[in-house]
Amino acid sequence: MSRSAHPAGPRHADVLPEGHYTAPPADLNALDAKVWARTVRRTEDGGVSVGGIEVARLAEEFGTPAYFLDEADFRARCAAWRDAFGPDADVFYAGKAFLSRAVVRWLHEEGLNLDVCSGGELTTALSAGMPADRIAFHGNNKSEAEITRAVEAGVGRIVLDSFQEIVRVAHIAESLGRVQRVQIRVTVGVEAHTHEFIATAHEDQKFGIALAGGQAAEAVRRALKLDGIELIGIHSHIGSQIFDMAGFEVAARRVVGLLAEIRDEHGVELPEIDLGGGLGIAYTSDDDPREPHEIAKALGEIVTRECEAAALRTPRISVEPGRAIVGPTAFTLYTVGTVKPLEGLRTYVSVDGGMSDNIRTALYDAEYTVALVSRRSDAEPALVRVVGKHCESGDIVVKDAFLPADVAPGDLIAVPATGAYCRSMASNYNHALRPPVVAVRDGEARVIVRRETEEDLLRLDVG
Ligand SMILES: Cc1ncc(COP(=O)(O)O)c(C=O)c1O
Ligand SMILES: N[C@@H](CCCC[NH3+])C(=O)O
C-alpha cells in the first residue's frame, strides 16, 4: 500500500524516512472536497464548519474525540446509488460499515435496503423500523438462534455461505413452517487488488463456496432439493476498498456462467444476482473513486451482455455498498495533547483517541490525511505522525501527513473519511470510552450514538 516518494523538504528533516507521504499540499489550509464530507468548509475566521456549524463549537458541545457525520451527504450518497441503479435493481447498504437506528431510518426514507451480518445488526435494523423483507442476512457462521430470529422476522433473503448452512437454514425454516428466500455466496476466484485482509474472492479464505471444482454447482443442487428454502440467486463479494472495475466484471461474468449451468442442468433460471459491495473511496487526494452511475452502467452492461450470450433472462441485480455510502460522510475530531518533534524523523502529534476509534491504520496500514481545523495557520509544513493515547507503538491514526509546524496542544485536528469501519470497529482497549457519533445537518447537530461513560464500562464488570 505504501507509495513512498520524497516530499519537498518539510522542516527539521534532511533525510526523510520511508512512508506513504507524497509532497506536502501547496496549501495546508485547503480542504480537498474529495476526502471531506460535502458540507465541510473553511470559514472566514480560519476555522472549519460542517453542516453550517463551526467545529470548535461542536467540540465544545460534544467533546473530543467524536465522529461528526454530515447527514445531507449521507442522504445524497444514498440517493445517488438508488438513482444510478434504478427501479430494476436493489441497493443494500452494508450495515457493518456503520449502523445506528438513525442511519436505518435515513436508509428507509431514502429507499435503500439493508445488509446485516449479525443478530445485533438485525435487532438494530428491526427496532428502527426497517421492513424485514428489505433486509439481507449475511455471515459465514450465523448461529441457529440468529437464523431462527431472521426467519421468524421474515427477512427478504439469507445469504448462505457453506454446505452446512444450506441444510441448517432449510431445517430451521421448515421447522417454523416457512420457506426462506436464499442466495448462495460463491467465491469466483478473483484476486481483488486490495489489502489481503479485505479481499474475499480468492480461494484461500473463509467466505463463500468456490465455483472451482464444481462446488458451487453442487451447493445449488443440494439447495434446490430442500423444502424449507427457495433459491432466488447467486451472491458474490470480491473484497473491499477496490477501485478497479475489472474484478467486478470477471465476477459478474462467472456468476452469469453459473446461472447458465444451473439453467442447463435444472431447467431453472434464477431471478437474482448480487455483486456485493467493495467500491473504494478517497482516503487521500491520491485516490480516485468511481461514481455510482459508472458502477451501475459497467455492471449492467456486463450482466446484460453475458446473459444475452448465454440466452438467459437478465436477472435483477443487487449491490451492497457500505464504505462508499458512509465512509466519506464523517470525520473524527481530536484534540491535540502533546507534540513531540523527533529531529531528522518526524513530529509525533498525540491525540485524545487512537486505535480504539480507528483500528484501520494498525490493521490494514490504511492511509488517512489530517487537517488543523480550529484555526488557520501559515506555518511551514511539518511531517507528522498522528498517534493515539494507547499503550501500543502501533497506535497510529495517520501514519504520514503534513500539519502546520506550529501545531500545538489544544488545537483541534480532524481526520476525514472515517465514516466507515471506524465507529463500527471501535474498541474499549485500555478502557477507552467509545466516542459519540453526532449527525450534523442544516445548522443542527444531534447525537445519534452517545459517548460511552465509565458507568457503561462498570455495568459490564460483574466481579
Ligand atoms: C458480503 C458483503 N457485502 C458488502 C460489504 C460491504 O463492503 P464495502 O463497505 O467495502 O462496500 C462487505 C464487506 O466487505 C461484505 O462482506
Ligand atoms: N473492515 C474493513 C473492510 C471489511 C469489510 C467487511 N467485509 C475495512 O475497514 O476496510
From TrEMBL:
One of its GO terms (molecular function) is pyridoxal phosphate binding. It catalyses: meso-2,6-diaminopimelate + H(+) = L-lysine + CO2. Specifically catalyzes the decarboxylation of meso-diaminopimelate (meso-DAP) to L-lysine. Homodimer. Keywords: Amino-acid biosynthesis, Decarboxylase, Lyase, Lysine biosynthesis, Pyridoxal phosphate. This is Diaminopimelate decarboxylase. InterPro entries: Ala_racemase/Decarboxylase_C (IPR009006), DAP_deCOOHase_LysA (IPR002986), De-COase2_C (IPR022643), De-COase2_CS (IPR022657), De-COase2_N (IPR022644), De-COase2_pyr-phos_BS (IPR022653), Orn/DAP/Arg_de-COase (IPR000183), PLP-binding_barrel (IPR029066). It is an enzyme of class 4 (lyase). Pathway: Amino-acid biosynthesis; L-lysine biosynthesis via DAP pathway; L-lysine from DL-2,6-diaminopimelate: step 1/1. Belongs to the Orn/Lys/Arg decarboxylase class-II family. LysA subfamily. Residues 330-419 form the Orn/DAP/Arg decarboxylase 2 C-terminal domain. Pyridoxal 5'-phosphate binds at residues 278, 320-323, 421. The modification N6-(pyridoxal phosphate)lysine is found at residue 96. The active site is at 391 (proton donor). Its cofactor is pyridoxal 5'-phosphate. Substrate binds at residues 323, 360, 364, 392, 421.
